[in-house]
Amino acid sequence: MTTLTPDTDSPVLDRTRGASAAHVTPEGAAWLVSASAHPQSTLAVWRARPGSPAVLPCGTAFDVVNVPVVFGRRVLDLLWHEGPGSGPVAVHRGRMLLFAAPGTAHRLPSLLHWEEWADAVPAPLCHGPGDAVTVPALEPAPGPSRWLVAPDSRSPWLPGPDALLWACVRAARAAASADLRLSIFPSADPGANVYDVSRRR
What is the C-alpha to C-alpha distance for residues 28 and 41, in angstroms, rounded to an integer? Predict the structure, then answer.
């Protein structure tokens, strides 16, 4: 089971306060570098500089679904509150990186297109075989990257394309509903004259 890091901006943490490792565990680091062609040397270099991010290949140990951070927050909240949970999750330069089961990068865009949600869901950047991603440091450090759900296991559970499709569609529907409510009830003009018509005879 992955561990949520203490990011107080996220409602996801409401249900898991207290269980918060702010860094990747040794087991989680071993899982991350298992994606590399040379895991032992990669891990040795990373441990020598635990405050630095790393670039790891996708497609073997994990795929990564890369979405805008606001939309990603909605997806993550749904995965934790109404769905099966998530695997490791990171934020990098205003984007959310959802670590997913291998094969998800190929399958998720096809499912979104098949279900005719491709235009409604912010287009995810799906990283699979042949791609690489920058992942946050093993230990918390200032910079554009940080873990929201830190890896803490050699074999973390990873959502597949079906779980992410469900969460993306639900998040898109919720956003569309919010936009509709805003358009039906525009904000009142603070300088407008208001009359109490309930007293009219």
Answer: 16
Question: 69-81 vs 161-184: helix axis angle to the nearest 10?
Answer: 110
- Please give the Cα distance from 76 to 2 (Å, whole number): 13
* Confidence check: pLDDT of 54 > 90: yes
What are the boundaries of each domain within the chain? 22-176
pLDDT per residue as tens digits for the range 74-86: 999 999 999 999 9
- pLDDT digits over 139-180, tens only? 988 888 999 999 999 999 999 999 999 999 999 888 777 654
CA trace torsion 47, 51, 52, 54 (10° rounding): 50
Give the CA dihedral 16, 21, 25, 28, nearest 10 degrees. Answer: 40
Cα–Cα distance, 191 to 133 (Å, whole number): 51
Q: What is d(CA 51, CA 48) in angstroms, rounded to the nearest whole number?
A: 9
Beta carbons of 51 and 141 less than 8 angstroms apart: yes
CB 65 within 8 A of CB 105: yes
What's the pTM value of the predicted model, to 2 decimals? 0.78
Helix, strand, or coil (residue 200):
coil
Asked whether the predicted pLDDT for residue 14 surpasses 90, the reply is no
